Structures are given as structure tokens and as C-alpha cells.
Amino acid sequence: MAAPNPRSQRTASFAALGVAIGIVVLALKFGAWYLTGSVALYSDALESLVNVAAAVVAFAAIWYGGLPADANHPYGHGKAEYFSVVLEGVFIVLAAVVIFREAYFDFRAPGPITQPGFGLALAVVASVINGGWGYVLVRQGRARNSPALTADGMHLYTDVITTAGVIVGLLLVIATGWLVLDAVIAGLVALSILWTGWRVIRASIGGLMDEAVPPATLDRIRGIISTNAEGAIEAHDIRTRRSGSRTFVEFHLVVAGSMPVSQSHDICDRIERALRAEVPDASITIHVEPEEKAKHVGVVVV
User: N or C, which end of the chain has less CB nearby within 10 Å?
Assistant: First the structure.
């Protein structure tokens, strides 16, 4: 089996580092739960367990998705990333179900909160690490067009918000002595996690359904074609889709019927070079047509 391309290998290295960081954060959060006995902190730790599992799946998907096209996968393996995002969403939903169960039993028989100071301090440290690493993952995921990396980072952002809510809630428990609040907070955490799971799954469905690139990216593609198609008449029927880190672009290019094949080929090469310079990992298909096929719509050549 051929190795993934260097760009995908670098992206996979971020996912691999995410596994190690996730394990550290998981240890801190389980330590916070062990010290305090708080079911809310237990729910927060379970979400971090999901983060570790998701990071492992993301690493595998990014590595596999970076493999070059082959006879069985002529368009590459990029959609593997979307399957990893769906699996991450399933993990999140399962974690929410477990948290609801623990919150229910704790609501019926609230337990005491022990060593809250040290436990909350561990939770704060874990949250700071998660926030910083989530920021890195989102930036790198968007820069590298990696849905798995971006989803992982966005999930960590949600984890930070969840932890902040848990910390505030536990401070209220300590201040009021209402132990039942611990279970209520855990239930709210589970609802938040369920919402995150839906958003993660929804984002992956778009990729599996071959959604077009965002409007801003499409406008940029149209502008590049317009300014680099000198000698042609127009470009129409522009279609795009994403598959992992790859962007597929195809369109019809209208040229004069008398134009030599070599000249029209040169125009296509010029457009492809310009597109690849602006859209990394672009796969471009151009269908050349004679002038009587012009639709007088689409991109006008500058």
C-alpha cells in the first residue's frame, strides 16, 4: 500500500499529538472526579474519554484518507474523514446516555462533594489545555481542509464550555449546600453533549452528500478562471465538491471552434496551475467546447 502524501502525513501528526494531549486531559479530569466524587465532574471526564477515542479515529481516518488514488478508489480516500466524524458523533451520543444514567441515580441519592478545591483546580488546568489545543486543531484543520481535524477542535471548544459550566455549578453546590445541583448540572452537560453530537454528525453528512464548497471559495474559483482563461470565450456549468482535504472542480470551457487543440490545452493548463496555487489539493476537470456551445452564462473571460 502506498504511503499517504506528505501534506496528509503532517495533518495526521496533529491528530496523533491530539491523542497524547487527550490522555493527559483525561487523567486530570478523572483525578478531579476521584477527589471530589462529583457526578458533574464524572460527566466531564466521560466527555474527555470520547475526545481520546475521537482523536484515535481521526488519526486513522486522516492517514487513510491521505492515501493516493488507486484502481478501487480512483477519486482517492478522502471521504474516510467524514466517516470518522460520524463515528465521533456516535461516541458523543453514547457518552451523553451514560451521563444521563449517572445523573439520574445521583439525583435520587446525592453524594457528598469532597476536596473540592484541589479537584476544581485540576479541572481548570484540563480546560486550559483543551482550549489551547482546540484552537490549534481548528486553525490547522481549516488551513489543511481537514474535516476530521476541524471537528475534533470544535468538540474541544465545546468541552471547554462544558467544563466551565461544571466548575460554576460546583461552586454553587459548595456555596448553597444543595447537593442535588450536582446531578442537575450533569444532566445539563449531557444535553449539551447531545447537541454537540448532532452538530458533528450534521457537518459530516454534508461531505458525504457531496455538498459544494462554501460560496466565498466558489467566488474565488470563478475569479481565478475568469482571469486565467485568456483566449477562451466563457466557462459555464462550474461544479464543485469536497472529499476530505481534496476539492474537486469541473466546468466547461468554450473556445473558438477553429482554435488548435494544443492552444486550448495550454489555456486549460494555465487555469489548472492558477487554481492549484489557490486551492490546495484541487482535482480539476475541464471539458473544452466549441463556440456554438456557449450558453452566455457563467464566467466571462476577462
Answer: N
pLDDT digits (tens, 9 = 90+) for 162-172: 788 778 878 88
**What is the C-alpha to C-alpha distance for residues 125 and 205, in angstroms, rounded to an integer?**
34
Provide DSSP, 135-177: HHHHHHHHHTT-HHHHHHHHHHHHHHHHHHHHHHHHHHHHHH-
CATH number, domain of 107, equals 1.20.1510.10
Distance, first Cα to last Cα, the chain = 45
Please answer whether residues 26 and 51 qualify as being in contact, where contact means their C-beta atoms are separated by less than 8 angstroms.
yes
- Residue 1 inside a domain? The answer is no
Q: Count CA atoms within 13 Å of residue 51 on its CB side.
A: 37
- How many whole angstroms separate alpha carbon 211 and alpha carbon 67? 22
What pLDDT was estimated at residue 189? 75
pLDDT surpasses 90 at 272: yes
Shared-domain flag, residues 199 and 254: no
Alpha carbons 204 and 150: distance in angstroms, whole number: 11
Does 219 lie in the same domain as 201? no
- In single-letter form, the type of residue at position 38 comes to S
- For residues 182 and 60, membership in a common domain is answered with yes
Each residue's pLDDT tens digit, 121-130: 998 999 999 9
Residue 279's domain comprises 215-300
d(CA 142, CA 275): 18
Q: Name the domain boundary from 208, 236, 262.
A: 208
> Measured between alpha carbons, how far is 149 from 147 in angstroms, rounded to an integer?
6
199 and 242 both lie in a single domain: no
Q: How many domains does the chain have?
A: 2
